[in-house]
Amino acid sequence: MKRSLIAAVVSATMATGAVAAESVEVLHWWTSGGEAAALGVLKKDLESQGITWNDMPVAGGGGEAAMTALRARVTSGNPPSAVQALGFDITDWAKQGVVANLNDLAGKEGWDKVVPTALQKFSKHDGKWVAAPVNVHSTNWVWANKAVLDKAGVNTMPQNWDEFIVALDKVQKAGYVGLAHGGQAWQDATLFDGVVLTTGGVDFYNKAFVQKDPKALNSATMVKAFDRMSQLRSYVDKDFSNRDWNLASAMVIEGKAGFQIMGDWAKGEFLKAKKVPNKDFLCMRVPGTQGMVSFNSDQFMMFKVGADSQGAQTKLAKAIMNPSFQSAFNVVKGSVPARTDVPNTAFDDCGKKGMADLADANKSGQLVGSMAHGHAVPASIKNGFYDVITGHFNGTMTSAAAAKAMAEAAE
Ligand code: BGC
Asked: Is 329 in the pocket of ligand 1 (CB under 6 A)?
C-alpha cells in the first residue's frame, strides 16, 4: 500500500471513531518450556484486555544477552515498552534516565506496602517506581530425581556438604550422572552462590559479594569454596560444556542424573513435564544453607515510550502487580510472589517451602541478593566474577589464583 493510501485509511478509521488497538512490546529471556508456559499466563491476561503482545525473546539466564539487545534498541531511540531485568541492571538503566515513572499507579495501588523492601531497593530509583516485580526466585536450591536416589541408596536428604558429596558418589556409582549441569558462565556462577553460602555463611557472603571486601574475596574460605567447585566439577558428565540449563533439568527429569543445583525456575520444567514434588522429584536447599535464601527477582522495567503506548504499558504494570495474577503466574514459573499479601494455597510443596523460607530468611537476616543473578553487585563487577568462576571451573587456574582474581575483579 502506498503511504498516502495508508494515511487515508488510518484517518478514515479514526473518523469512524474506531480506537486504535493497544499493544506492548516485551523483551525477555523466558524461552524454555516452563518459562514459556509462565509467560503465557501474562500474555493471556493482557490479551483478555484487548492488548496485543509483541514478543521479543532473547535467550540466556541472568539476562546478559537480553541487556545487550536492549542496549541496541535504546541507543537507536526505540526501546520496547517493558523489559525483564534483574537487580542492579534496573538501577543501571534508571541512572541513564530512559525509564518511565510508575508512581501514579504505584501510589494508587499501594505497592509500597506490599512489595518486600529488598525488592523495592531495585524497583525504585530516586524515589520513583521504575519497574514492576513479577516474582522472587532463589538460587540456593537442589533438584533431585527421587527414583534415581532410591536406586542409588540415598535414603535421606543430605544436610551438609560432606553428606552431599557422599550422595553424589552413590548416584555416580549406581551408574547415573551425579550432577546435571550446563557449562555456561551464569550457570557456573549460580552454583557458586550456593557453594559460597554453604562454605562461609551469610556474613561471609555479604562481606565478599556485597561489601566486596578484598580480605574476604581473597581468603582461605574463598579458596575452600573454589575447591568445592572443583569437587562438583568431578560429578558432571563429559558433555556439560555450553549445555542449556533446561536440558540439564531434563537429565534429572528423565532419570539420567541425580541432582541439579539451579534456581527455582528449574521447578517450572519439572511441572511442565507433569512431575510431582515429593513423588517424582525433591527440592531442598543446597546442603548447609538451610534457613538462608539467595534471591533474585524478575522485574519488568518500563521504558519511556510515546503517549500512544503509555496506556497499554500502565495496564501491563497493573496486571503484573495483581495479587491473583501473581499467584497464577508464580505457580507455573517455580518462583514465589513479589507481594507479601498473596496466599500460598495454590502453591505445591516446594512453592510453599519457597514462600516460608523467604519470609523466615527475611526475618532472621539470612536473605541475601544473588550474585549470579545481579542482586549483589552491578554487571561491571559481576561479569568479572563470572570470568573467574568459569575459568576456574574449566581448570584454567588454581583455587588460590581464583580467590586472588576475585579480589582483583572487584576493584
Ligand atoms: C531469571 C529467571 C529465568 C532464569 C533462566 C534467571 O536470571 O531470573 O526468571 O527463568 O534466569 O532463564
From this structure: no
Assess whether the region 2-137+297-364 and the region 138-294+374-410 belong to the same CATH fold.
Answer: yes
Q: pLDDT digits over 299-355, tens only?
A: 999 999 999 999 999 999 999 999 999 999 999 999 999 999 999 999 999 999 999
325 and 42 Cβ atoms separated by less than 8 Å: yes
Q: Mind spelling out the 3-state secondary structure of 212-226?
A: CCHHHHCCHHHHHHH
In ligand 1, which atom is closest to the CA atom of 373?
A: 7
pLDDT in tens, 242-285: 999 999 999 999 999 999 999 999 999 999 999 999 999 999 99
The superfamily in CATH containing domain 138-294+374-410 is Periplasmic binding protein-like II (3.40.190.10)
Three cell numbers written together for 333: 514459573
Supply the pTM of this predicted model: 0.94
Ligand 1 binding pocket mutation candidate from 29, 140, 375 (most atoms within 8 A of CB): 29
Q: Is 265 in the pocket of ligand 1 (CB under 6 A)?
A: yes
- Test site for ligand 1: of 88, 137, 188, 191, most ligand atoms within 8 A of the Cβ: 137
Distances (CA, A) of 179 to 170, 193, 252: 12, 16, 9
Domain ranges of the chain: 2-137+297-364, 138-294+374-410
Q: Which fold has domain 2-137+297-364?
A: D-Maltodextrin-Binding Protein; domain 2 (3.40.190)
Beta bridge partners of 334: none
